[in-house]
Amino acid sequence: MSRLSRIAEFGQQVWLDNLSRRLLDSGRLARWLEEDAIAGVTSNPAIFHKAIAEDPLYRDDLARLRDREPDPERRFEALVLPDIRATCDLLRPRFEASGGEAGFVSFEVSPRLAQDPDATLAAAKRLWAAIDRPNAMIKIPATRACLPAIRDAIAAGLNVNVTLMFSPRHLDDVFAAYCDGLAARHAAGQPVDHIRAVASFFLSRVDTLVDGELPESTAHLRGHIAVASAKAAYARWQETFGGEAFAELHAAGARPQRCLWASTGTKNPAYSDVMYVEELIGPDTVNTVPDATLAAFADHGEAAETLTEGLATARERLAELAALGIDLDEIGERLQREGLAAFDQAYDALLRLVD
């Protein structure tokens, strides 16, 4: 048993934060699924920009699409949605064997729509229909503007991966949107037992920003705030979905929205390259990892249930941070704006590439 596959013993799924045609055609993705129990795949504009720019397997199809499809955004979708479908099909046995709990593949709506809930919802529905696989997930950003789109996508029966979450406020808002969407669907007499969603909580960017804000007198907090936030988020998840408020929906077959740890590649070389994996392993969660982190954990990572350990210490660290006047909700808004700007840039570069 590989080091990565041992994580599943503690109830956590590992998803790969990468996708390209070469990964599929070479059989490397299939080997990771078989040997390392990789249980899902996520993608974003930056991932596809890199894939299309570097993978020659796209060239002929792109040349044909330039003649047939005048719109760059539709051309991009026509180029990569076959890869999304093929990856869904590759993971379909895992999806069915798990009763619909694993085996998901995520594709993102255009980041240009992040402040337009109606356009985001329309795009999510269009992409869901175009992919046409029960183990697809549509990524929608956790902007305040898009909370209604998240709620309505769930009410419409879509699987949703809510992305760009950085703070306690984001977590509460997204959990509420998910539950409201399920409640609306249930009240309309429609089934809720097949819907799955994840809440993607970003980590390394939090430490990068907070570390720069900390005075020398509190240097002991550096590199610890993102993990502390994730442990507190998981405790909040347990309260939200394990309590009476969710009981009626749970009785109707609804499943909790899982916490997904994202941005788990360590950015500071002084820190462990597997810290955002090793320190956050626990039941009913997902960790989505880039190739480098995947390889690092496969080489020297240690699997153990760590997510529920040290919650009191985590809360003490967060309280100490708050006493310094550093507000994680404000930090989260700043990081979300920066994340959206980065996704916008990646998407613009991607459309220029296919144009």
Automatic annotation (TrEMBL):
It comes from the Bacteria. The active site is at K139. The keyword Cytoplasm applies. Pathway: Carbohydrate degradation; pentose phosphate pathway; D-glyceraldehyde 3-phosphate and beta-D-fructose 6-phosphate from D-ribose 5-phosphate and D-xylulose 5-phosphate (non-oxidative stage): step 2/3. Transaldolase is important for the balance of metabolites in the pentose-phosphate pathway. HAMAP family: Transaldolase_2. This is Transaldolase. It comes from Halomonas organivorans. The gene is tal.
